[in-house]
Fold this sequence. Notes:
Structural class: mainly alpha
Helix content: 40-55%
Order of helices and strands: HHEEHH
Strand content: 5-15%
Oligomer: single chain
Number of helices: 4
Number of domains: 1
Largest sheet: 2 strands, antiparallel
Number of strands: 2
Strand order of the largest sheet: 1-2
Shape: globular
Amino acid sequence: MATQQPKPTALLTPDQVARHLAVTTDLLGVLRTRGGGPPFIKVGALVRYHPTSLARWVYEQEQANSTSKHQVLAKLAGEHNGR
């Protein structure tokens, strides 16, 4: 009996993820470098995001406590914008 291969899922580009999260692609780059952002995949020199991993990361952010990652993201955004 042949094993069924899972259907490939279209990976998301940084532009698509940035639009979905309402952030800049620059901020996504900062999060990739410093950590704390959504998990990503390198395909050669390209960065891609798996939709399931992105959804899980968003859900985990929602579950954060009062020292939430939302505050960390806001702080990183402020530092990135020169504040």
